[in-house]
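User: I'm curious whether this sequence folds into something compact or stays loose and floppy. Could you predict its structure so I can see for myself?
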Amino acid sequence: AVPDEIEFATKWRISLMLLDAALAEGFPRWPVLADAGYGEYYEFREELRARKLQYGVGINGSLVFWTPGQQPTPPSSRKLRGTKGRPPSRWKSNEMPASALEIAKGLAYRNVLWRHGTKGPQRSMFAAIRVRHAHKHTRGTAPGPEEWLLSEWPSGEKEPTRLWLCSLPETASLRELVRFVKRR
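Assistant: Here's the prediction. I'll summarize afterward.
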């Protein structure tokens, strides 16, 4: 018995509508912290950037990224002489982007304390690297903006257990990144 005037919307779109309503009411532009149910959607992060909101969002390990020094080549701005049509528009690369989990497995981890809780100090092993999302790279799209890929690899685990994308500035320290995402 859902009324006809109510249209389907994904939860990340609903959250953007709620954010827009809060901003229209004059609420502060607080950072957005979310789990992978939101963070795995490139469009959600893109909309947060368009609203100039900082974010720290969980992601799954299968999302693909370009790491520093591995990014594709932009299309030539000139049309080749003697050819018809528009100039090339696809980005090209001889390499494939890597999954977030593959990247995270190759990082150097450090022990980070992010807060003191009722059960004592909250700490784990973390690493971070600047990456650019390779969303739709097979279609020759441009890489996404540079952001942090933060990874947690607790002692005793076979691989990293949690991954986040974070829009904090390049100057942010590892401890700042961890404290930021752990506020959720």
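Summary: The mean pLDDT is 88. Residues 11-24 form the longest helix (14 residues).
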